[in-house]
Amino acid sequence: MNVKAVFNRFTFLVGARYGISRKHSQLVSFISRLSTAGLVIGVALLIVVMSVMNGFDRELRERILGILPQAMIYHREGIADYVSLIDQLKQDKRILAAAPFVQIQGLFNHQKHVAPANLFGVDPAQEVKLSSLEQYLPAGALVLLSQNSQAVIVGQGIADKLHVNVGDKITLIIPRSADANATPGILMLDVIAILKSNTNVDQTLALMNLNAASQASEFPGKVSGIRLQVDDLFEAPSIVMNAVNQLPVGYFGSHWMRTHGTIYEAIQMSKSLVSLLLFLIIGIAAFNLISTLIMVVVDKQGDIAILRTLGASSKEIIGIFMIQGGLIGLIGTSIGAILGVLLSWVVTDLIAGLERLLGIQFLHSDVYPISYLPSNLYWSDVVQVSATSLFICFFAALYPAWRASRVQPADALRYE
């Protein structure tokens, strides 16, 4: 088909006039507004939802995995010479930084309250080089942790369960997994700070001095493993496997995809399913566009016949109604895209304000990965959604435009 024969100055002028004209029947005008509103809602919601899902993805990578280890190397009997091991591991250029840690599974007790804990003994001087812990702690908290062997930092969720504040003393009970009949270890610790990252990390994470945690562990004087920071999160399984293969028997590894991979997969699946659902909403709006244009064709049969008698070709009639449908799609998509971008920028503050107003919290970090609604707008998503919407509207206008080109002037003017 010759494009110039379909789209020219004449078809643009007439198509644009039909598109913005309000001289239709009330039913046609109503369906036209309905299809435009459907496009606006569908496009805006799709952009907002994709931004929220991108926000969850960003918070998982930058916030949760900025606190918890991205990859770990363990030894079944603890690691004594961790300095040499770190030097060996760093020979892999994909490993950006490494630090020792002691991991203890225990139970905190305060008065009549208890809370499970995933306690990490860390070296604050090395930890700040590969984690974002310092961002979520009061100034100087890590320095106090390195100086006080009885100091502990607990997550906000643990503090809430135990009803403790900074300055309180809590009891740490450490079971002995090697001997079921052995008396569990008991430590009295001082809460020097509360970790508040607004993620599910706050529910179980606690921090101690590396040396103090080592003495309380099953292998005193040793560390549990080496924490790694990698240049590409998705290369973590390969990096761990490569490191373990080069180490003696007894070493094993883990990585974030084992501990938090299900959360990441759930986010990606939810993003795909919700996007599909909202694209269907755009599709429904496009079907409304088909109904609108067909009714316009019926309503404008006399005008079409006059245009044909004045010399307009069938291709130009197709162009007129294609432009009309495209104009409706462009208006709906543009308004929806602008609205979606604006909502994506304010949705976090909007939901936070709504939570304060109603006195409720929609997201809890003991159920969801984070306790607030994040948003991260990608302009590529806006372009993709807008282009898809316009593409759907373009093809939705094909059939009504073809129907308009089949109108016979003699039949249309017979009863005029």
TrEMBL record:
Residues 34-232 form the MacB-like periplasmic core domain. InterPro entries: ABC3_permease_C, Lipoprotein-release_system, LolCE_TM, MacB_PCD. Pfam families: FtsX (PF02687), MacB_PCD (PF12704). The keyword Ribonucleoprotein does not apply. Keywords: Cell membrane, Membrane, Transmembrane, Transmembrane helix, Transport. It is found in: Cell membrane. Its main location: membrane. The keyword Transmembrane applies. It is a multi-pass membrane protein. Residues 276-409 form the ABC3 transporter permease C-terminal domain. The chain crosses the membrane at residues 30-53, 273-298, 319-347, 382-402. Belongs to the ABC-4 integral membrane protein family. LolC/E subfamily. PANTHER family: LIPOPROTEIN-RELEASING SYSTEM TRANSMEMBRANE PROTEIN LOLE (PTHR30489:SF0). This is Cell division protein FtsX. It comes from Cellvibrio zantedeschiae. The lineage of its organism: Bacteria, Pseudomonadati, Pseudomonadota, Gammaproteobacteria, Cellvibrionales.
